[in-house]
Amino acid sequence: MSHRIRTWSVVVLSTLVLALPSRAAGDAELLKDLTSVIALLGLPCGQVVSAVTLGDNDHVATCQDGHRYRVFVNAEGRVVAQKQ
């Protein structure tokens, strides 16, 4: 994975954390941000239609095509999306 993609993924995920306090607007932004992170990681998704927050920087995203990913920051500080 290129350095640019990792950097943008961290930026987008950081934005997710900052957007969480405002729930109503934050939900739509969270879905957009998760969609961007998954696309930047090169995984099939289309658009994230729902998300469940498991913890800080830890979400399960459900895509319109049925794929589900756990998107989180690993111990090395990298954004990771694991297929569920």
Strand order of the largest sheet: 1-2-3-4
Largest sheet: 4 strands, antiparallel
What Rg is obtained from the alpha carbons, in whole angstroms? Answer: 12 Å
Structural class, judged by helices and strands? alpha+beta
**How many distinct helices?**
2
Unreliable stretches: none
Helix content: 40-55%
| C-alpha end-to-end distance | 21 Å
* Share of β-strand residues: 25-35%
Query: What's the helix-strand series?
Result: HHEEEE
Mean pLDDT: 83
Number of E-state strands: 4
Q: Judging from the principal axes of the Cα atoms, what is the shape?
A: globular
Compute the number of structural domains: 1
Provide keyphrases for this structure.
84 residues; alpha+beta; four-stranded antiparallel beta sheet; 2 helices; 4 strands
Task: Describe the protein's architecture and organization.
With 84 residues, the chain is an alpha+beta fold. The chain has one domain. 42% of the residues lie in helices and 30% in strands. Strands 1-2-3-4 form a 4-stranded antiparallel sheet. Helix 1 runs antiparallel to helix 2. The radius of gyration is 12 Å and the shape is globular.
